[in-house]
Amino acid sequence: QVQLVESGGGFVQPGGSLRLSCAASGVIIKSYTAAWYRQAPGKEREWVATIIRSGSTLYEDSVKGRSTIRRDNANNTVYLQINSLQPEDTAVYLCRLYILNGPDYWGRGTQVTVSS
To answer: Please, what is the average pLDDT of the chain?
Structure first.
């Protein structure tokens, strides 16, 4: 059974940083594309960052330059570091592992709240 469990969210003041984790079981993450998405209250889910099998990364414009997605194959975990957090970053952050036209797995998310 495949499980993705996100952690690392919480309450942070503007300008702060968080490192989100996505621990995978039942699947080998290096075989998949990994991505982070977020969903704010009343808004649609939006893509945040992706790391493909080769290790190349892509970022949504609003987090580019202040975020890093990386993959720890030894621990089968995907991370998202976000710096300079702002209130508009408040959302539930979800992890996704997928293969194009193949398996597609999602976690349940971790809440990030940015407020003074």
So the answer is: 97
